[in-house]
């Protein structure tokens, strides 16, 4: 039951979309719940396709705020039960064991005087039907002052109301690995504040089934919220061995031709099927090794920077590392921009002005090339 939950603070930014794509590629979740997407349904549909999910439900934003999305893979047996501006509720059937349980992605009301509506919603959901229940998201509230660092005292009555609804729903906090806090106000020095706003709850019957599940806090450079990664060690592992594919972008690089020619000239007997297969395999291995060096540098640097960011955030209890954290975030975002620019250039799409990343423009250019290929019979 590997899944991700993230308050992404807007997917209109190409950096955030790229970060989501990298998270999905790295961790391989079956389910992704996103809050504060700040995009409409059409845009979210394109993002779903880009990050590689077959299914999705989207609650559009209102103006420049809000927006939820739930994405799930083709092999996940999931049925949507209800949704609103602050939740998406679904029932999941584990086909291997026929175990049925409930998944709720939750987003608390941003305004404190409206927070009681969020708790009323949780009470309402609890009474809908009885199933093992897992609930995660950005609750925009803490349970105790231990979940806060810096800033003014939190209202005790606000925390008490949150604790009450957690108890009424029969929830148990699933804990976490990684930084203690999931949100930062991004200020420096004494003004810096941390809170644990994002979390995962579950009922006892759900915990009994998924007893080894771990919640990981992953720091990202594009949002002030950590990503919640729900890792189930018992879930089937995806094979890390990727089948060879010849990438179209390689053909645009003059070195590719030299790699292929060298591998073909070094091949042995080409008059038999076995010899031909051996030559193709050798050529594929050489191309993969070359591609790893030529195109694999930026993703590796991004991962190294993200590890450094995660390490610094765990050390930064008093804001001492605020400036270095800010710089590492900037470095990651610059690398993401460079990677985005690189792939735009590889697609031979030239925008009308510097930095233009209009998706409609790229689609129009792709359609134009497709029409030309059809006319030429390619």
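^ Assign residues to that structure.
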């Amino acid at each position: 039951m590997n899944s991700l939950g993230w308050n992404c603070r807007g997917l209109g930014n190409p950096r955030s979309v790229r970060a989501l794509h990298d998270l999905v590629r790295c961790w391989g979740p079956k389910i992704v719940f996103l809050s504060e997407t700040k995009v409409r349904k059409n845009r979210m549909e394109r993002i779903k396709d880009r990050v590689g999910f077959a299914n999705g439900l989207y609650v559009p934003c209102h103006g420049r705020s809000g927006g939820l999305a739930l994405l799930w893979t083709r092999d996940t047996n999931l049925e949507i039960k209800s949704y609103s501006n602050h939740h998406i509720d679904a029932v999941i059937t584990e086909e291997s064991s026929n175990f049925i349980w409930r998944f709720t992605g939750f987003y608390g009301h941003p305004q404190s005087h409206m927070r009681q509506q969020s708790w009323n919603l949780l009470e309402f959901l609890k009474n809908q039907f009885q199933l093992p229940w897992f609930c995660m998201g950005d609750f925009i509230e803490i349970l105790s002052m231990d979940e806060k660092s810096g800033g003014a005292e939190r209202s005790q009555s606000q925390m008490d109301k949150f604790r009450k609804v957690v108890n009424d729903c029969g929830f148990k906090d699933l804990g976490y690995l990684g930084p203690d806090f999931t949100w930062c106000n991004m200020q420096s020095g004494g003004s810096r504040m941390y809170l644990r706003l994002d979390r995962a709850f579950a009922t006892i019957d759900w915990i009994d089934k998924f007893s080894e599940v771990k919640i990981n806090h992953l720091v990202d450079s594009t949002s002030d919220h950590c990503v919640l990664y729900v890792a189930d060690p018992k879930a089937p592992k995806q094979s890390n061995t990727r089948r060879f594919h010849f990438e179209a972008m390689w053909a645009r690089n003059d070195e590719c031709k030299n790699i292929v020619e060298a591998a073909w000239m070094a091949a042995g007997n080409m008059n038999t099927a076995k010899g031909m297969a051996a030559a193709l395999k050798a050529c594929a291995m050489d191309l993969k090794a070359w591609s790893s060096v030529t195109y694999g540098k930026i993703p590796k640097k991004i991962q190294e920077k993200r590890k450094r960011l995660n390490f610094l955030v765990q050390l930064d209890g008093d804001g001492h590392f605020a400036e270095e954290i800010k710089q590492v975030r900037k470095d990651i975002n610059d690398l993401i921009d460079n990677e985005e620019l690189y792939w735009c250039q590889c697609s031979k799409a030239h925008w009308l002005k510097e930095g233009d990343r209009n998706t409609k423009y790229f689609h129009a250019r792709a359609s134009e090339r497709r029409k030309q290929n059809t006319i030429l019979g390619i």
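Residues 348-356 have pLDDT under 50 and may be disordered.
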